[in-house]
Amino acid sequence: MTKLNLNPRQIVALEVVFWLALASTYFLLPEKLVLITQIMITGLFAIALDIALGYAGILTVGHAAFFGIGAYLAGLLAKYGWGEPFSGLLLALAVCAVLGYLLSYLIVRGSDLTRLMITIGVCVLFFELANRLTPITGGADGLQGVDMWPVLGQFRFDLWGKTAFIYTFCIVLLMFLAVRLMLKSPFGLVLRGIHDNRRRMLAIGSPVDSRLRLAYCFSAAIAGVAGALLAQTTQFVGLEMLSFNRSAEILIILILGGTGRLYGGLIGALLYMTVHDFFSDFDPKFWMFWLGIFLILVVMIGRGGVLGVLSKAFKVREQRP
Question: What domain range is 265 assigned to?
Answer without folding.
Answer: 4-21+32-317
